[in-house]
Write a structure and sequence with these properties.
Strand content: under 5%
Largest sheet: none
Number of strands: 0
Mean pLDDT: 81
Shape: globular
Length: about 55
């Protein structure tokens, strides 16, 4: 599981508001935060996509 609260606190410290934070992809966040953490694997991504599908407008 990703440490969302920790990531949000770091984003706020960088001056990013919630809307900007949630608009970032995980890859963009990792680059911006330079955490050195590896990207999640495909099985974890598929699980997240199933749990939180994009809404159609």
């Amino acid at each position: 599981m990703l440490p969302w609260a920790e990531m949000m606190r770091a984003a706020l410290a960088m001056g990013l508001g919630p809307e900007r934070f949630w608009a970032l992809s995980l890859r963009e966040w990792l680059w911006l935060a330079d955490t050195g953490a590896p990207a999640i694997g495909r099985p974890a991504l598929d699980s997240l996509m199933a749990a939180f599908p994009d809404r159609r407008r």
